[in-house]
Amino acid sequence: METVLGVSMTPAAVHAILVEGEHAEGATVDTDSFDVSRGRADPAGPDQVVSAILGTRQGATESGCPLASVGVTWTDPTQAAALRDLLADQRIDKIMLVSAFLAAAALTQTVGSATRYAHTALLFVEPSAATMAVVDTGDGSVADVRREALPDDDHAAVEALTALAAGAEAMEPRPDGLLVVGSDGVDIATIRMQLEAATSLVVSTPEEPELALARGAALASAHPPLFSSSTAAIAYAQDPATGAAIPHAVGLGYAADAATVERGAEALAYSADPDDAGLPPDGAFGAADVESPWTGSAAAPNEQRTTKPFLVAMSVLGLFVGGVLALVIALAIAIRPHVDTRPQIGAHAVAPAAPPPPPAAPSPAPAAPKPARRAPPPAAPTP
C-alpha cells in the first residue's frame, strides 16, 4: 500500500499528515504538528520540514507503505525559497511545492467530489486578506478569483468576509456550496454562523482546520498533471502568500519559471518569484503595467486572445494541405510502373533440356584361353 505525505509550513508551526492511497483518497494514517523553534527570518522551519520528510519516508518504507509523493505548502515566500534550495542541495526528489491557495483549492475539489457538487465556492481566509474562487469538481480548474484585503479591526474583517460570502451565489459558474478554509491560525469556527446567515449556500469547514492545508498539499501532489495543466495554465502565477491571480502571468513567463525540485520535472503550481508580495489588493493589473516579453510593449488582453484562433486556423490549414500533397505523391508513385515490374520479352522462355547421351556399348567378354598342347610321350628305350 502506498501513502502520500502532506506538510503545511507556517512561520510559527509545521503540520503534517500521512494519508493512505496513491491519490491520497484513503484514511488518515498519522498526523503530527510541531512548533518552529526559531524566528521568522531563520531557515529552521525548512530544516525541520526536510527532517520530517526524510524520517517519514524511511519509516513508511520500512513498514511496507512507501511514499508515492510529498506535497508541501507554505505561507511565507522566504521560507518557501529556503526550502526549495535545501531540497535541491540534498537532491531530495518527489517533492511538490504548492501555494496555500492551491492547496485549499485541491481540498475544495475533493470536498465537491464527496458532496457531488459540480462547482464549489472557496473562501480562503488569511490574517490580512481573503480570496474567493469557484473550483470545478471535474478537472480542478479555478475560476472567478476575487481577492480582498481585510482591515485590522476584527469586526470590520468579519463584515468583509460576510459580504464575500453573500456574493458567492452570483459567481460564475454558480457554485453549489461554500467551503471556508483558514490559514496561519485563523479561527474559522468563530465566524461560521455569520457566514451561514449571509448566504443560502451550504457552508462547510474542514473537520481538522489546522491540518486542512496539509491535506490539500497531499492531494495536490497526488495529482500533479491535474494542477499543472488545469490550474497553472489559466494564469495562476500568484502572490506566493495568497494565491491572488495575476492576469497574463503565463505570457510574462511566471508559469514557465516556476521552480522545481527535479530538473526537467513539470512546472509546479506556484510563482517562483518571491518578490511579488507588493501586489494590489484586487490582483488586477492594467494593460499599460504589463510589458510583453515578445514585442517589448504592452499587449492588451483582447489582442492576445484574437491571435489564438488565427494561429489555430493556420495550423489546421497547413495540416490539410500537407495531407493532400502527401496523398497525391503516394498515388503517383503507386500508379507509375516500376522498372523491376515491367514485362520483359523472353523473361519467361524456357529452353528444352538436352537429351541424355546414349549408353555406351558393353565391352565384349574376354576370350577363353586356348588349352596348352600336351607333350609327346617319351620314346621307348632301345634294346
TrEMBL record:
<feature type="region of interest" description="Disordered">
    <location>
        <begin position="348"/>
        <end position="383"/>
    </location>
</feature>
<dbReference type="InterPro" id="IPR055583">
    <property type="entry name" value="DUF7159"/>
</dbReference>
<feature type="domain" description="DUF7159">
    <location>
        <begin position="2"/>
        <end position="232"/>
    </location>
</feature>
<keyword id="KW-0472">Membrane</keyword>
<keyword id="KW-1133">Transmembrane helix</keyword>
<keyword id="KW-0812">Transmembrane</keyword>
<feature type="region of interest" description="Disordered">
    <location>
        <begin position="272"/>
        <end position="301"/>
    </location>
</feature>
<feature type="transmembrane region" description="Helical">
    <location>
        <begin position="310"/>
        <end position="335"/>
    </location>
</feature>
<dbReference type="Pfam" id="PF23717">
    <property type="entry name" value="DUF7159"/>
</dbReference>
<protein>
    <recommendedName>
        <fullName>DUF7159 domain-containing protein</fullName>
    </recommendedName>
</protein>
<feature type="compositionally biased region" description="Pro residues">
    <location>
        <begin position="353"/>
        <end position="383"/>
    </location>
</feature>
<feature type="compositionally biased region" description="Low complexity">
    <location>
        <begin position="277"/>
        <end position="289"/>
    </location>
</feature>
